[in-house]
Amino acid sequence: MSVSVTIKVRKEVVELADKMVRYGIARSRSHAINLMIERGIAWARGEVEFWEGVYEKAKRLEREGYRIRHGGLTGILEEARRR
Questions:
Q1: What is the pTM of this model?
Q2: How far apart are CA 66 and CA 33, in angstroms?
């Protein structure tokens, strides 16, 4: 059961939550903040760093001329998430 609570958090926490949503780690800011509370902020930072690296490497490959077929990147990311 969920209960709404209004709290103030550091800007860093909100930025981390936004990145978690952007990279598909969490469904929403609320979900991201709940994950941070449940698993710890160190875990959240590690996940974001991992996914930033994955996205950066994929973009670098595209810039170097590699073609990622439609849906190919999604498959790669889903496979990496299962690890």
A1: 0.61
A2: 36
Whose tokens are 């974001």? That residue is: 48
Q: Indicate if the alpha-carbon torsion angle 9, 11, 12, 17 is positive or negative.
A: positive
Neighbours of 48 (CB within 10 A): 20
Q: What is the 3-state secondary structure (H, E, C) of the chain?
A: CCCCCCCCCCHHHHHHHHHHHHCCCCCCHHHHHHHHHHHCHHHHHHHHHHHHHHHHHHHHHHHCCCCCCCCHHHHHHHHHHHC
Tell me the percentage of the chain whose pLDDT exceeds 90: 58
Question: By C-alpha distance, which of 44, 45, 47 is closest to 80?
Answer: 47
**pLDDT in the model for residue 53:** 92
